[in-house]
């Protein structure tokens, strides 16, 4: 009898020893150290929507201070020298843009826009009473980068959106041409650049033609500013300057010194501020990530 009791105790001990690990796994790991993940709430991650697109546009710029200053261009500013300047208009421009946006909530989205604005090349001609003639052709363009916020209204397959943009720009105005006087003929070439801030208000209509792709028709008003143009002219450092008599000229560093010392005219850099109205057409897509 004692032997049977001893066998029974041994059997119970072995069963208990084998069953303990299995029971521990069933109830979550008795005796195992707890990790930080064991106490975190498991939340389901909702998909976010990314929107990318490309658009082209046509715009118009009204006459502004920049154009008015260019009409007062003078090769030489001094007493007893009279000049007349002719400037072809440069009101129309084309632009290309790429935009990237992500949804902040169901109706709001944030992102950025990168684009390039190209004006028609324009011509400047100047004659003066000293027998000098200047002919310059300007290439004028602005590259810009905007941070954007948009709010939208959904109507089935249509989205109407309105937004604001704040950004930076780099504007170039590169002159190339020639200068003629009684002393000879001289080629003229240069590079002038300026950096500044940009602002935008825009609205657009998006029409989905598949589940993820849409056509866009938009309109925007943008303003670009830059404090000073500088660069090189005829292989020497120079800039576009406004003289104290109101005339505009492309002056090298040595010209600036002569302008102040010999003619007693002070000079300051030409600044930039212009606004454009644009109509754009584009294609875009939305997808979750």
Structural summary, described in words:
With 289 residues, this protein is α+β, with helices and mostly antiparallel strands. It has helices spanning 2-26, 36-39, 65-70, 253-261, and strands at 49-60, 83-87, 92-103, 108-119, 122-128, 133-155, 158-181, 184-208, 213-226, 230-233, 236-243, 248-252, 267-269, 272-288. It has an eight-stranded antiparallel barrel with strand order 1-3-4-6-7-8-9-14. The longest helix has 25 residues, at 2-26. Mean pLDDT is 82; it is low at 27-31.
Supply the number of structural domains: 1
Radius of gyration: 35 Å
Q: Distance between the terminal alpha carbons, to the nearest Å?
A: 73 Å
> Which structural class is indicated by helix and strand composition?
alpha+beta
Which features characterize this protein?
289 residues, alpha+beta, Porin, eight-stranded antiparallel beta barrel, 4 helices, 15% helix, elongated
SSE arrangement:
Layout: H1 2-26, H2 36-39, E1 49-60, H3 65-70, E2 83-87, E3 92-103, E4 108-119, E5 122-128, E6 133-155, E7 158-181, E8 184-208, E9 213-226, E10 230-233, E11 236-243, E12 248-252, H4 253-261, E13 267-269, E14 272-288
Antiparallel strand pairs: 1-3, 1-14, 2-5, 3-4, 4-6, 5-6, 6-7, 7-8, 8-9, 8-10, 9-14, 10-11, 11-12, 11-13
